[in-house]
């Protein structure tokens, strides 16, 4: 057992740790899950994992929401997701895996992005992601508004080349500018296509719905290479068929998944900045993600959780389970690759 002290809880045992494997979450049968400061899923902090023992998957927060077009507050999303993740348990029956035993997952804390200068913040996020990815780790980023997907994709593309993208969102986020600003939460994927960091053969929005500015929005989006699975398509065709179609489109390309929590219906995610009626249920989202377990997921984000509009942690619980499924997909692949 580790000799490290507990999660800032005097006298409490430390995070579960095995000499021969990853250091896992704090044991909730010995330390109440509501005790101590929150890390994602009660996992160790990155600095607790040790300098030589590098994490396979790094959870990182980006408390930045200066790119929003409506309700602010997603800057508090990452910490709300961490708080809501205290109830996650170590075995994921839906994917038949213990994600935190298969790979070392650790929480790196937050990237300190300038809230008063969007362009500088975008650069800061890219540089911080470069540093975390340079160890070979995969990123599970907790936003923050959707602006942050652009610097994250830039960083991932430096390692993998242009990546396939699955974008779960009520919105297209391929608009051009707002008030003349090019980096906003409605524009990251247009910028990414312009910069050539996405594999335009394998781009899909999932859960799209709601009013647009005009039909041109769809024409532009189509020209950029995106396919669209609307939230109504998910309802009509069902999660298995949708996941199968997405798997076909992605193949074995390196894949980035970006999840705007507003892909969920406001009944399932009231705590978000630009809510749209008629969205996915959290059950549908989680099932589609599980159906993508065979895809080569190189990094992912969950963004747009704005806890001020949340009730009873509905949104942050949904986001924590979403990040848990994504983390499980990555950790299973890491274990499989290691066994090869
Ligand atoms: N990425 C999110 N959540 N929303 C984009 C909405 C852009 C608009 O105000 O039209
Ligand atoms: Zn959205
Ligand atoms: Zn979005």
From TrEMBL:
Q: Alphabetically, which GO biological process terms does the record hold?
A: putrescine biosynthetic process from arginine, via agmatine
Binding-site residues, Mn(2+)? 146, 169, 171, 173, 260, 262
Task: Say if the entry is tagged with keyword Hydrolase.
Answer: yes
Q: What SUPFAM superfamilies would the database entry show?
A: Arginase/deacetylase (SSF52768)
Sorted alphabetically, which InterPro entries does this protein's record hold?
Answer: Agmatinase-rel, Ureohydrolase, Ureohydrolase_dom_sf, Ureohydrolase_Mn_BS
Cofactor(s) listed in the protein's UniProt record: Mn(2+)
Q: Where is the segment annotated Disordered?
A: 1-33
Co-factor remark? Binds 2 manganese ions per subunit.
Q: Does the keyword Ligase apply?
A: no
Q: Which CDD domains match?
A: Agmatinase_PAH
Q: Which Pfam families match?
A: Arginase
Could you tell me where the Low complexity compositional bias lies? Answer: 1-15
Superkingdom, taxonomy of origin: Bacteria
* The entry's keywords: Hydrolase, Manganese, Metal-binding
Write out the coiled-coil annotation as residue ranges: none
Gene Ontology terms, MF aspect: agmatinase activity; metal ion binding
Q: Which NCBIfam families match?
A: agmatinase, PRK02190.1
Protein family according to the UniProt entry: Belongs to the arginase family. Agmatinase subfamily.
Q: What is the protein's given name?
A: Agmatinase
Record the organism: Streptomyces niveus
- Taxonomic lineage: Bacteria, Bacillati, Actinomycetota, Actinomycetes, Kitasatosporales
